[in-house]
Every structure is written in C-alpha cells, then in structure tokens.
Amino acid sequence: MGGDHSRRAVLGGVLGVGVAGLAAAAPGLAAADDLAVERGGRGRYAGKVVQITGGTSGIGAATARAFAAAGAKVAFCGRRTALGQEVERAIRAAGGDATYIAADVRVPSSVQQFVDGAVRRYGRVDIAFNNAGVQINADLHKVTVEQWDDVMNTNARGVFLAMKHQVPHMQAVGGGHIIINSSVGAIVGRPGLSTYQATKQAVRALAQSAALEYGVNGIRVNAILPGITDTPMIRPPGMDDATWEQAKVYVGRMNVDGLKAVASPDQIARAVLALASDDLNYLTGAAVPVDGGIAAGRRMLLPELPS
Questions:
Q1: CA 189 to CA 206: how far, in whole Å?
Q2: Is the pLDDT of residue 27 over 60?
Q3: Angle, CA 148 vertex, CA 144 and CA 154 arms, to 5°
Q4: Is 204 within a domain?
Q5: Are 55 and 130 spatial neighbours (Cβ–Cβ below 8 Å)?
Q6: What total number of domains does the chain contain?
Q7: Does residue 307 form part of some domain?
Q8: Which residues are catalytic?
Q9: What b-and-e string marks burial along 155-179, b requiring 16 or more CB atoms within 10 Å of the CB?
C-alpha cells in the first residue's frame, strides 16, 4: 500500500469515527488474551472448524486465538507471512490447533486456494469469520481511483470471494455460520472515511441478502459492527506504547459516549465467539453493533451561558 493508504491509518481517522468498538465481555467465554486451551483440552467449540480472513493481527488474530482456546481447529489467512506464522506458533505453543495459509483476499485464485486448502487440512468449515480489511483516511475528492479500488477489493469483494467459496462447503455438510466484520461505520457516517464506510455498508447488506439466500441450507449469515478498537488501523505509526496507552484513554472519552473507552481486540473476539454460538442459532441476517454505544447516538453539548 502506498502513500497515506495503509492498515495503520493516522489517528485523525480514529477521532472521526473509529473502526471497530467496545464489546462487553460475553459471560462464560474464555478471555482471548489467555491462550491456554480450556481445561481438559475440550472447549465449547471442540470439533468445530473455523476459517478467518485477515488473521495475522488485530481483531482477526485475537479471534483466531480465542476460537483455538475454545477448542476449535482454526485456519486463517493474511498477506503478512511472518506475522501469520507468529500467530500460528503462539496458538500451537498454547496447545491449540491453527494453520496459517498465506492469501490475499483481493486475488480470486488466492481466496479459493485458502478456503479449499483449509477444508483439505481440516475436512470441513463450520464457522467463517470474514474479517480482512484496510482503511483510508481522506476526503472523497482526494481519494484516487486506485485507492478506492484497493479498499473496495479488500473490504467488500474480498468478503464476497470468501463467501463464494465457503458456501458450497457448508452446503455439503448441511449448514454453517458466516460472520462478517463490518463496522459501526456502516450506520454512523464520519468525515474522511467515506471510502472505508462505503465498503462496510456494502458487506452489511451482503450479510442480509445472503442470510435469505442460504437459510434454506442451514447457513446463517450475520455481521458484527465494531466501533473503535485498539488495532494497528487506528494507532499512529511510531508511537511508543506508553504514549499510546495515554492517548487511547482520551480517544475513548472523546468518541465513545456510552462506555467512554476503546475496545481491545480480545473484547471484539469474545463478541464474535458469542455470536457464533449455537445458543444464537435462530439469529441470521442481523447486524450487531459492538461499539460501546457509538451507534446509540451522541450527547448534546450545550455552551455554558451567562446567567
């Protein structure tokens, strides 16, 4: 990615809206930052096979760790091989079962190789978390056609390609669950993020229509709408940890009127696991905000007037 278009968009983009949000930890779910496989080697997702796109960092990596800790077999992809191998090693060292497959969701053949390769590795796919995404922070008229295409091809077409190849595998075994990582930006507009948010509205609509198309096959399709999340997408490049921890507090206070905090990737991962649960097996076509209250609205701010 060239210029100002990268996974690590400047903080200005965050202060505009945020890319992913504050999820209350779901009761009874193992914390994703605890990589130990659940006691006895079996968890609530034992026997399940999960595919994750964009699993080398941020929400995707946290979700891979969380599913593996809960007993699932996890296949995940991403473009950054070194990071992917690092996530795989960490999961395996903790006793989980995960396989990293290098893939670029912008490339149709690469997506098919990931989906089909993961099925060859584990025999099936029960749950898919289509998560890969990038962001650009720029006013619309300053966005190049190449930048627009790259964000759209990653965030929207990448989800389409993954689903295109996942659905037949799920049909073959009588069902499954696809969860799409959209954004609270699909329902709350912010300046500077028009390109990114257009893609997130697109995949929200994709989830709704696909849920109607494939419900007859036992396939549920839902979208999760995170708010501002502590990932490389919002952290300014080069900022040291101590400074970022301080800045993050103010980002939450300024932009999340409900819970006044930025989410951790682990909080979003726990929300994904909760959404994937069979306890919610009548939920499909839904778009679930996990945003600390951003979608609920903003406070009215009034100036102090002289009495």
A1: 19
A2: no
A3: 145
A4: yes
A5: no
A6: 1
A7: no
A8: 196
A9: bbbbbbbbbebbbebbeeeeebbbb
Q: What is the pTM of this model?
A: 0.86
Task: Kindly state the tokens that stand for 197.
Answer: 């948010």
Whose structure tokens read 């939920």? 283
Residue 301 inside a domain? The answer is no
| Mean pLDDT within 278-297 | 96
Q: How many CB atoms lie within 10 A of CB 196?
A: 26
| Distance separating alpha carbons of residues 196 and 106, to the nearest angstrom | 15
Residue 229 has pLDDT above 70, yes or no: yes
Which residue type occupies 50? Answer: V
Mapping DSSP onto H, E and C, the string for the chain reads: CCCCEECCCCHHHHHHCCCCCCCCCCCCCCCCCCCCCCHHHCCCCCCCEEEEECCCCHHHHHHHHHHHHCCCEEEEEECCHHHHHHHHHHHHHCCCEEEEEECCCCCHHHHHHHHHHHHHHHCCCCEEEECCCCEECCCHHHCCHHHHHHHHHHHHHHHHHHHHHHHHHHHHHCCEEEEEECCHHHCCCCCCCHHHHHHHHHHHHHHHHHHHHHHHHCEEEEEEEECCECCCCCCCCCCCHHHHHHHHHHHHHHHCCCCCCCECHHHHHHHHHHHHCHHHCCCCCCEEEECCCHHHCCCCCCCCCCC
pLDDT, mean of residues 80-102: 98
CATH number at residue 246: 3.40.50.720
Q: Which two tokens stand for residue 33?
A: 């930052």
CB 218 within 8 A of CB 176: yes
Range of the domain at 98: 5-287
At residue 19, the pLDDT reads 30
Residue 306 in any domain: the answer is no
Mean pLDDT of the chain: 88
Rounded to whole angstroms, how far apart are CA atoms 246 and 268?
Answer: 21
- Which stretch of 13-22, 169-178, 289-298 has the lowest confidence by average pLDDT? 13-22
